[in-house]
Amino acid sequence: MTVFYKPLTNVALLLLMMASLLLTGCSSQWTFPPMAVPLQPTLQQEVHLARIDQLLARKDLSDEARAQLHYERGLMHDNLGMRDLARLDFNQSLSLKPDQPDVFNILGVYFTQNGHYDAAYEAFDSTLELDDSHSYAERNRGIALYYGGRYRLAYQDLLNHYQEDRDDPYRLIWLYLVERDWQGESQAQQALLTRKANAETTGWGWQLVDMYLGVISERELLEQLAAQGKDNQQLAERLCEAYFYLAKRYQYQGDNDRAVALYKLAMSGNVYQFVEHRYALLELNRLAYRQP
What we know:
It is a single chain. The chain has three domains: about 45-100, no CATH class; about 100-200, Serine Threonine Protein Phosphatase 5, Tetratricopeptide repeat (Alpha Horseshoe), CATH 1.25.40.10; about 220-290. About 70% of the residues lie in helices and about 0% in strands. The chain has helices at about 10-20, 45-55, 65-80, 85-95, 100-115, 115-130, 135-145, 150-165, 170-185, 185-195, 205-215, 220-230, 230-250, 255-265, 275-290. α12 packs antiparallel against α13 (about 230-250).
């Protein structure tokens, strides 16, 4: 059989060389953990922010138009990691136009990140009251319920989200995380294996599923990530995901020191808009709080 392959880019080759420094086994230690260059604001983002600032300075805007601009600027601030400024924009947008499901949804995520779970539930409920087809509000509420220790309700929300797209590996992973903490590793593994068997398993995220199932090792996961990476943006995004889900595994095993290191690595690429980056900080805060 003829084998065709895509040559590694320079960035991917460097990452693969770094990943090869990983040592497998119970005593594994990292000499140099694989990392991407942290993402930086782009010229387009900065120009877009400046244009929104100019528009908001106008006196002839309707409340609806001003609310939309505050929402858009909030999203830009959020993508750049300026969460306090983003929250101010979202609140201002909501004060001008209260019937915005997307704004309630992002505020619910912020409440979850800060550990204000009751406020998060209310925000997601408001989203779903305004738009009962807002599937990401259901997912986000499920994650908030998971972090709030309400596993049965979290499972139901995340199961509903999974059933909307059974081929999305991340929906399987979050269901697995809830089931593992709620019902135990054995039952969660079996459910994950069954769902994978009934899915179309194409795309990067399925390698994370295979890591949880023990099909591939940590080293193989990172080597595959490096080999498939096409640019720094993609590498930063995938490393954010890989480190977060590896951290969740080590944390469940009781290796909190390694989990803390991995959560920090998940945040190191500045992929602010990813769920994994958002909740890595929450996990770090929870681990710090539990320390004597």
